[in-house]
Amino acid sequence: MVPAEFRALPYAETVVAVPSGPGTRRGGTPPRLGVHLPAGGLLQQTVACARDLLKLAEELDYDYLLTAEAKSIPLIHEMARQSGAEKYFIARKGPKVYMPDPISVEDRSITTLGVQQLFLGRDDADLIKGKKILIVDDVISTGGSLHAMETLVAKAGGTVAGRMAVLAEGDAKSRDDIKFLAPLPTFKADGSVR
After folding, report:
1. Closest CA to 49 of 106, 23, 10, 107
2. At 59, phi and psi to the nearest 5?
3. How far is CA 42 from CA 38, 49, 106, 140, in A?
4. For 45-56, how does the pLDDT look when each residue is reduced to its tens digit (9 = 90+)?
5. pTM to 2 decimals?
6. Residue 194 CB: number of other CB atoms within 10 A?
7. What one-character-per-residue DSSP string does 130-186 give?
8. 3-state secondary structure 2-57
9. Among 5, 9, 60, 135, which one has the highest count of C-beta atoms within 10 angstroms of its own C-beta?
């Protein structure tokens, strides 16, 4: 059962708590607490979140949007579509053949075991140089991926104009430099809200 305080979140209509325990995850991955966004309603959720993040971004002065691969790609694409932006950037988790002379930074995200890297092609880095970048993510927890994207923007010669996410959990909920739509509760092993 989803706790009442979680169901009351404005962006929780399609969010379901997934309790941990044997057999709760497929594919041999270890069970853990988390959230699941079912496919039905996901498009409407993305459109609504993009709209509301853009409202929060109205007070910010930025030239481009940037996110990290992969869950935030539909969100940033929808934000660009709604705002009329012709270009946005995606920091990739590996170098791609279409990336000329890529730049990279290390990323220590809690959703990925170990260290990974984020990459931008030199062509995108050249467009970021001297520009103000709004960083967008789906969920900000520890800020590891956020820090990696900030470092990538700086390495490309841009400045961070703002940071935003659909949901913030843990210490991220208390940061005043992050704009987010709703807090994401964290759960104890018994499924109750912390």
Report:
1. 10
2. -85, -5
3. 7, 10, 30, 19
4. 899 999 999 999
5. 0.78
6. 8
7. T-EEEEEEEEESSSHHHHHHHHHHHHHT-EEEEEEEEEE-GGGGG-TT-EEEEE---
8. CCHHHHCCCCCCCCEEECCCCCCCCCCCCCCCEEECCCCCHHHHHHHHHHHHHHHH
9. 135
